[in-house]
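Mods, move this if it's the wrong board.
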Amino acid sequence: EVQLVESGGGQVQAGGSVTLSCAESGFSFTDYAIGWFRQAPGKKREGLACINRSDGRTTFYTESVKGRFTISRDSAKNTVYLQMTSLEPEDTAVYYCAAASIYGDYGRLMRSDYEFWGPGTQVTVSS
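Not the wrong board. Structure tokens:
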């Protein structure tokens, strides 16, 4: 079965950096995209970035994280990364990776377009 597992979360001081990993397994085909989302307590789940795993190159970012967050992949390791820099307390949230069909509108980074989800990893940014 399809399985996604996030890792790399933890506590970091404001201004610091964290790189999250999303390990992918159980996919029968490569025609999917991986997206990163986050959800803070009491707030809606927010799409951050995604990458097309079929071509390994096409990426999309939400405007609010451009210049701070970078998505990348290591196909040999079946892993997608989210590098986050200049973190602020407002970035504190549970971070999720998710998979969507590349034949859908995955680049909108809308929750409804993503079918499979990991359990999430907590990132806490301290002042």
